[in-house]
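Incident review: delayed structure delivery

Summary: a single-chain prediction request sat in the queue longer than the usual turnaround. Root cause was a stuck worker, restarted by the on-call engineer. No data loss occurred. The affected request and its eventual output are reproduced below so the record is complete for anyone auditing the incident later.

Affected input:
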Amino acid sequence: MPADAVPVPAKAFSGRLLALAVVLVSITVLLAPSVRIFIEQRAELAALQADIAAKKDSHQQLTKELARWDDPAYIKQQARDRIFYVMPGEKRYMVTGAEGLGESDEHASATAPEDLPWVDALWNSMTRAATDTPAAD
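Output delivered after worker restart:
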């Protein structure tokens, strides 16, 4: 290097740096909506997959419950528990009191009338059984 050569200072802001900044800003502006949509769709997909898994679990439980009704012993047990059926020759005793069975509104119809003649009560019971919605468990 010659002794009289003075180094040229580098420019702090060059045209290349400006072009690179413009390209980066353009890419960011163009890709930001696509990336946002991609993230939203991934979240929606995860939510739908969780919903599908919950529905499959519910379906399996309902299938198991339906399969139980194919067993005559289960049907007999349900008839004994729900509508108090007994086998011929058996006696069923119902204990009522403070800790026994009592009046329960859990499965009673909201529209159940009281003090009807037995024929009207029977007919009313059949119509309510056909139209009432089942109680939530």
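Verification: The CA atoms of residues 96 and 103 lie 9 Å apart.
Action items: add queue-age alerting; document worker restart procedure.
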